[in-house]
Design a protein that fits this description.
Elements: E1 2-8, E2 14-20, E3 28-37, E4 40-48, E5 51-62, E6 65-74, E7 77-87, E8 91-98, E9 104-113, E10 116-125, E11 128-140, E12 144-151, E13 156-164, E14 169-176, E15 181-191, E16 194-201, E17 205-213, E18 218-227, E19 230-242
Length: about 240
């Protein structure tokens, strides 16, 4: 059984208290508070049985720059990360630093113009690159998209494309250089209440599904999948949803 109490204190301070009376080991109590200041917010100050966590944000310290601090303490172990974000109309830069042990630094950048978007991120641990990722994409009037991505220090390269034929038909595909698998898929809006989907790849896997909306709250979805090398081992499913 849980007892939860939410208190709205003066000057915008919010205090949330939760008590678990039937914890397996002992009585557990958790207190969390939030407070908004000019250009600064205490997003979370949480304490429960030997664990404390603090999350805070500083907005527009410098035009376009914001800072976020996430720190926690459990027994004698302290951890904390400082996130710095810079954003403008053309570029977004982020940097995350382990301010306790200074063992890792993460950075990312994203920019784009005239339908072209490029970005990447990198992780530095113990003075060497632990991982980095790069990606680029191009779209035309929201009708077609082509993207390429390199993960795991550039060793895993994949590409994606999406093309909107019309308001009812959309097709897309993906290719992974590491797995050597090419996959295609598509959707077709048969009518305002029925949507059809299909997918196939070069490994011989095929799948299809249909979703029928009875009204605004009830839907029925059917799906089937198999491999062309052994069509006898197919799978069929039906799901009815009421929300």
């Amino acid at each position: 059984m849980h007892l939860k109490i939410k208190t709205n204190a003066p000057d915008g301070l919010t205090i949330n208290t939760c008590v678990d009376f039937f914890s397996v080991n002992s009585l557990v109590a958790k207190v969390r508070c939030q407070k908004k200041f000019p250009q600064f917010s205490l997003d979370k100050l949480e304490h429960k049985n030997g664990y404390t966590r603090v999350e805070s944000t500083v907005d527009e310290l410098i035009p376009g720059v914001s800072l976020s601090l996430n720190a926690s303490k459990r027994s004698d172990k302290i951890s904390g990360d400082l996130l710095v974000t810079y954003s403008s109309s053309r570029v977004i830069l982020t940097g995350e630093i382990d301010i306790v042990s200074l063992s890792s630094i993460k950075a990312s950048v994203c920019t784009g113009t005239n339908g072209i978007t490029m970005g990447g991120d990198a992780t530095l641990e113990s003075g060497s690159f632990a991982d980095f990722t790069f990606g680029a994409g191009y779209f035309t009037s929201k009708q077609a998209f082509l993207g390429i991505r390199a993960d795991k220090k550039g060793s895993d390269i994949s590409s994606n494309f999406l093309y909107t034929v019309n308001s009812d038909v959309t097709v897309g595909g993906n290719f992974s250089l590491s797995t050597k698998v090419l996959a295609f898929g598509g959707t077709y809006e048969l009518n305002p209440k029925t949507a059809l989907k299909f997918k196939l790849d070069t490994c011989g896997n095929i799948a299809s599904s249909s979703k029928y909306s009875i009204d605004g709250k009830a839907t029925i979805t059917t799906a089937a999948s198999a491999n062309v090398s052994d069509l006898g081992k197919y799978k069929i499913g039906v799901v009815a949803s009421l929300s």
